[in-house]
Amino acid sequence: MKLYFSSFLLLLILLSSCQEDPKVRILEQQKEDQKKEVIFNNISKGWNFNSVPSNETSRQLTSVWAEWRVFLYELGQKPKSSIGAFKQKAKTLSKRAFELNGKIPINFDLPEVRSRIAVITTKINAINLYIHLNQIPDQKIVQLVQEVKTEVASLNAQLDEIKRRSEIKIEEGEGDMIRMLDTTRAIPNSPTK
User: Fold this and answer.
1) Residue 86 CB contacts under 8 Å (≥ 6 apart), including other chains
2) Contact 27/124 with Cβ under 8 angstroms?
């Protein structure tokens, strides 16, 4: 009998000690809400992409290269309501950055452009990854936004450089000289029968 009574008493003490105080839960929820509000404000302040093409070449490409135009448009749209809106925007930007490699205009479909697009895609995917974590590293996201802004400016400069180089006229005889320097034109060493 004493065993049953002591077991019952132990169980009663255990169950009564496990009850949560609603005041503690409310305080924890308020702290969590304040923390989310601070993260939202930090991300909102740092979410400033430069979506305006910085040179004439980039502006002209927006009329020809639809993926570039849509990507720049998405960069220019800033979410305002909640962290969920930022998550959705990061997901959309990730998709648009991936689509940039699809249909690059022929004159600009060069390794220099593709590598810069790959860097932009990687950094936007990192933003998408970090913003979907349970504990959002807001400073890291703001840093990545600044890096994406720098990479977009670099891509704009590269597009302008390609355009400028294509406008340089080839001097007389320069084409022949370039062909002579081409080692793939060399005479094969295979013996003839």
Assistant:
1) 40, 43, 44, 47, 79, 131
2) no
Angle at 112 between CA 107 and CA 115, to 5 degrees: 120
**Res. 140 pLDDT band, cuts 50 70 90:** very high
Which pLDDT tens digit goes with each residue over 179-188?
777 777 656 6
User: H helices of 132-169, where?
Assistant: 138-166
Answer for the pair 72, 159: CB distance below 8 angstroms, yes or no.
Answer: no
Half-sphere exposure (CA, 13 Å, Cβ side) for 37? Answer: 6
Residue 93 confidence (pLDDT): 93
Return the residue matching tokens 């022929």: 106
DSSP string, 68-118: HHHHHHHHH----S-HHHHHHHHHHHHHHHHHTTTS--GGG-SHHHHHHHH
Q: In which residue are the tokens 């400028």 written?
A: 164
Calpha distance 124→120 (Å, rounded): 6
CA 9 to chain centre: 59
Distance CA 147, CA 127 (A): 11
- pTM greater than 0.70 (yes/no): yes
pLDDT reading at 51 higher than 70: yes
Q: How many helices (H) and strands (E) does the chain have?
A: 8, 0
